[in-house]
Amino acid sequence: MIKVCIIGCGKMADQHAIQILKIPDTEIIGVCDNEPLMARQIAERFKIANYFSDVREMLASVKPDVVHITTPPPSHYPLAKICLEAGCNVYVEKPFTLNTTEAEELIALANQNDLRITAGHNAQFSHVMLRMRELVNAGYLGGNPVHIESHYCYDFGDESYAKALLGDSNHWVRKLPGSLLHNIISHGVSKITEFLSGDNPTVIAYGFTSNFLKSIGEDNIVDEVRVIIHDEKSTTAYFTFSSQIKPVPHQLRLYGKKNSLIVDDDHQILIKVDDKEYKSYLRYFIPPFQYAKQYIGNFSGNYKKFLKRDFHLPNDAALKTLIESFYKAIESRGPLPLSYREILLTSRVMDEIFNQIKNRICTLNIQNLDSKY
After folding, report:
1. 3-class SS at 219?
2. Regarding beta strands 2-7 and 89-92, do their DSSP bridges make them parallel or antiparallel, or are they unpaired?
3. Those residues with Cβ within 8 angstroms of residue 195's Cβ, 6 or more apart along the chain or in another chain
4. Is it the case that residue 369 has pLDDT exceeding 50?
């Protein structure tokens, strides 16, 4: 029996609790929040025996095997450190930490104490991502991807929703090194770093504020980002984050030496792009027919999962898969679902994106100031 505790009892904690309770031989034995009412309400709703407002008290009292940290990002590092020092394995929601230095220290501490730690990159474990990985491992691309394109976007909606979302000038999101981006883009970046061969890729990032946000008075939030990534083994990648692209894409494209793949995470669609040429007018008829067959195949597969009650919303199914895989790795001492290399590489790329965007904004502000005088 794996004994689990959750720190942070907001909306994300609910999602974790729902999926944990679906995993056999697992029990949530405690929850903790610095607001006692938040801890009490989740304990009552999920029939959890113990709730706390002090982390150390909870760890000493119920002695969990695994702790899930679902608090705002600034607290991830200190809370994970406390849990690891208390002898607990740790699941940390994304973003893993605020920077790579913190990530390295947590992983080193986990290794030192013979414990396991993972990051909440659950988007890596949706049904369609697992199918994609099987094809890549079977050699469908003809080796490592030559080029990768990852789109992971966000929809602010209409003006009223955006103002409500961004209305708090003191919100913790604004204080993150990457601001709004920091709390979102690890999902899209990790889809790229999984396939990078080197540990120190070249990153070129450009970020700016959309005209939409400027029109509602938000000049300090970067919501449009374009990134070029190039690793030492010649794999290149583009990463796109946007609040303005419609419909909002969560897509991945892998271009190989032999064939290519298109992954649509929103609709759980995987399309194989074979390297076949057709003479004359056949190229206008055979490929559309083959793509149509694939879309029907995706429909059929999704429908079968739905009938088996194994087709939740993509994030729900992916979260359960990641949590369950993490628990199995703890019990068996087998490979982790997310390697430490991938977690650290994602952090390094994000650090570089935020540094370049910040430096460019500072340079523009200085230039604007100089122009006034």
Report:
1. coil
2. unpaired
3. 136, 144, 145, 148, 235, 254
4. no
Query: CA-CA distance, 132 to 90, in Å (whole number)?
Result: 27
pLDDT, tens digit, 9 for 90 and up, residues 189-243 = 999 999 998 888 999 999 999 999 999 888 888 999 999 999 987 899 999 999 9
Q: Model-level pTM?
A: 0.92
- Give phi and psi for 326, each to the nearest 5: -65, -45
Torsion of CA 227, 231, 235, 240, to 10 degrees: -10
Q: What percent of the residues of the chain are helix, what percent strand, and what percent coil, each to the nearest 5?
A: 45, 20, 35
Tell me, what amino acid is at 177? P
Nearest CA among 40, 59, 35, 62 for reference residue 51: 40
Q: What CA–CA distance (Å, rounded) separates 300 from 356? A: 45
- What tokens were used for 156? 């602010």
Total residues belonging to the chain: 373
Strand (E) or helix (H) holding 323: helix 314-332
Residue whose tokens read 């991945």: 252
CA-based R_g, the chain, Å: 22
Residues sharing a CB contact under 8 Å with residue 334, sequence separation 6 or more, in sequence order? 328
